């Protein structure tokens, strides 16, 4: 499952506009994939002569609904993307960001409190596991009431909690002081080269995506064949077998070993064969830690 990002912000701040700009999907979709521009992938595709070049993507949700339901959905995502109205002249973006942070803090406190009430009732049965959770939740609530946050709460958080305030949060100011999202949503309908020519440079949304990558601690690896050359995301620290599973479960199941070339070596060599001849291709096993920019070819047998 691809990593997911939820868009939050005040009504009419430009959430759906950002969704359209990132995913190139219609506003009615609510969930879409945001392709991640990557110059390395373009170079690889050209050198390989790939018929199809597929960028890596992050799932983006333009979360809808009344506040409680919306918060429930946001607990499921990996990061939050906040849109701040900087175009209408009626809002102060920095203040709106502060308000939202407070709302998330309050929502997390309420969430802990409600869970504590529920688990306290269940713990009357004497189940030691539940009693332990009651103690943990009381300790956390006490920490929150002293002005702490879940992010700096000592000890482990119960995994069922799904906190909001510990998620990476990236804000986008919509307007002349930040990114003109309305323009970006319109340009998303053009081929990327034409859009770049129009704004005389790459989209500032690329920077937002890069920030997300950093916050989520993601790396990119590539698979490069003539049929399809493709970029994939992976959590930093993942191994060759994780990468194989990202491409297809069969590749992980039947994993034998994997050939690894640095993307730049492959571009310079011009082909897998030439890279191998130059000794730039390595053979690695399941536990190899995949590096950002690796081109992988998994040998497998099912
Ligand atoms: N002028 C201008 N209008 C914008 C901008 N971004 C969004 N809008 C308009 O503001 C309205 C609300 O935007 P929308 O994305 O639907 O907001 P949401 O309620 O947060 O999803 C729409 O009519 C947009 O076209 C912008 O950067 N400039
Ligand atoms: Mg909307």
Features:
alpha/beta, 302 residues, binds guanosine-5'-diphosphate, three-stranded mixed sheet, 12 helices
Description:
This protein is 42% helix and 21% strand. The chain is α/β, with parallel strands linked by helices and 302 residues long. It has 3 domains: 135 residues, P-loop containing nucleotide triphosphate hydrolases (Rossmann fold); 60 residues, DNA polymerase, domain 1; 64 residues, Beta-grasp domain (Ubiquitin-like (UB roll), Roll). The model has no long low-confidence stretch (mean pLDDT 93). It is built from 12 helices and 11 strands. The strands form 3 sheets. It has a 5-stranded mixed beta sheet with strand order 2-4-1-5-6, with helices on both faces. It has a 3-stranded mixed beta sheet with strand order 3-8-7, sandwiched between helices. Strands 10-9-11 form a 3-stranded antiparallel beta sheet. Bound molecules: guanosine-5'-diphosphate and magnesium ion. Guanosine-5'-diphosphate (GDP) binds next to helix 1 and helix 6.
> Which CATH C-level class of the largest domain is it?
Alpha Beta
Tell me the number of strands. 11
- Counting DSSP H or I runs of 4 or more residues, the number of helices is 12
Mean pLDDT: 93
Main sheet: strands, sense, barrel: 5 strands, mixed
Helicity level: 40-55%
């Amino acid at each position: 499952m691809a990593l997911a990002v939820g868009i939050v912000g005040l009504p009419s701040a430009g959430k759906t506009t950002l969704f359209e700009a990132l995913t190139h999907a219609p506003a009615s979709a609510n969930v879409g994939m945001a392709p991640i521009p990557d110059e390395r992938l373009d170079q690889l595709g050209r050198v390989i002569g790939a018929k199809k070049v597929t960028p890596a993507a992050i799932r983006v949700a333009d979360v809808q609904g009344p506040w409680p339901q919306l918060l429930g959905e946001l607990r499921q995502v990996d990061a939050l993307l906040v849109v701040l109205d900087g175009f209408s002249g009626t809002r102060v973006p920095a203040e709106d960001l502060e308000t939202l942070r407070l709302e998330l803090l309050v929502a997390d406190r309420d969430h802990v409190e409600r869970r504590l009430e529920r688990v306290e009732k269940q713990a009357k049965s004497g189940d030691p596991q539940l009693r332990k959770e009651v103690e943990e939740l009381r300790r956390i609530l006490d920490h929150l009431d002293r002005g702490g946050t879940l992010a700096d709460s000592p000890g482990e958080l119960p995994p069922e909690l799904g906190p909001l305030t510990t998620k990476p949060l990236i804000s986008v100011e919509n307007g002349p002081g930040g990114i003109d999202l309305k323009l970006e949503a319109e340009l998303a309908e053009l081929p990327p080269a034409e859009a770049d020519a129009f704004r005389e440079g790459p989209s500032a949304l690329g920077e937002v995506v890069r920030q997300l990558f950093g916050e989520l601690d993601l790396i990119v690896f590539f698979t490069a064949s003539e049929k399809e050359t493709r970029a994939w995301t992976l959590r930093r620290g993942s191994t060759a077998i994780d990468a194989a599973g990202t491409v297809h479960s069969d590749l992980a199941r039947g994993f034998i070993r994997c050939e690894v070339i640095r993307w730049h070596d492959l571009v310079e060599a011009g082909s897998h064969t030439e890279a191998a001849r130059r000794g730039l291709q390595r053979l690695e096993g399941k536990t190899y830690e995949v590096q950002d920019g690796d081109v992988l070819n998994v040998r497998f047998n099912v």
